[in-house]
Amino acid sequence: MTTDQVQQRIEQFTTMAEADPTNEMAHFSLGINLLQAGRHDEAIPSLARAIELNPEMSKAYQLLGESFKKAGNDEKAADWLKRGYEVAARRGDLMPKQAMEQALIELGVEPPAVEEAAPAEPLPDGSFVCHATGRAGTPLEKPPFRGRLGEKIHECISSEAWQAWISQGTKVINELRLDLSREEHQRIYDEHMLEFLSLSDWAAENL
């Protein structure tokens, strides 16, 4: 994404967040783009507001911790990462939990002892394990759409995780007022989907 595109998104999400201070996705998206632009101090209040509106948004804790770290405040970074680690562990959000654990270790901080989400039953041989959740699930019957990404989702994302994204994706469309006939809006939607399904790194290397 170009610098101009990031700036356009910052302006778009700033307008949305100001128009509706309770729009958690606008604050979250604004924080992501400010962080991407290297404006770490400005990303902090946006991500903190997203957490205030939705305290279960484990990814926001991860990014808020990253923002504080890049802004040079390791103490605040560790504090928010520990809080987020506890949320992610309780919810079973595997990818954010692992990312925050690694970030805490890099800060020289011991991840907090947590009560993990209820462990799944031992998996029979050949069980389908969802990449997004790290848990057994039901395979999708077919790719949700054409192309390499659709095939990847079919290969590694469970039906349960995909249905959870459909619900979250509807929220993204509504709160960010996306018109998916517009290329830029489709790109924003796809980025949220990749983040939700823990496929952002794969997409960066393969799409």
Give the low-pLDDT segments.
Answer: none
Which CATH top level class of the largest domain fits?
Answer: Mainly Alpha
User: What name is given to the CATH topology of the largest domain?
Assistant: Serine Threonine Protein Phosphatase 5, Tetratricopeptide repeat
Question: Can you name the CATH architecture of the largest domain?
Answer: Alpha Horseshoe
Name the overall outline: globular
Pattern of helices and strands: HHHHHHHHHH
Number of separate helices: 10
Number of domains: 2
Q: Outline the biggest β-sheet.
A: none
Q: Could you explain how this protein is built, in words?
A:
Helix content is 66%, strand content 0%. With 207 residues, the chain is mainly alpha-helical. The longest helix has 18 residues, at 74-91. It is globular and about 45 Å long.
List keywords for this structure.
Serine Threonine Protein Phosphatase 5, Tetratricopeptide repeat, 2 domains, YggX-like, 207 residues, mainly alpha, globular, 10 helices, 66% helix
In short:
This protein is about 65% helix and about 0% strand.
Topology readout:
Blueprint: H1 3-19, H2 24-36, H3 40-53, H4 58-70, H5 74-91, H6 94-106, H7 148-156, H8 159-176, H9 183-196, H10 200-206
Helix pairs in contact: 1-2, 2-3, 2-4, 3-4, 4-5, 4-6, 5-6, 8-9
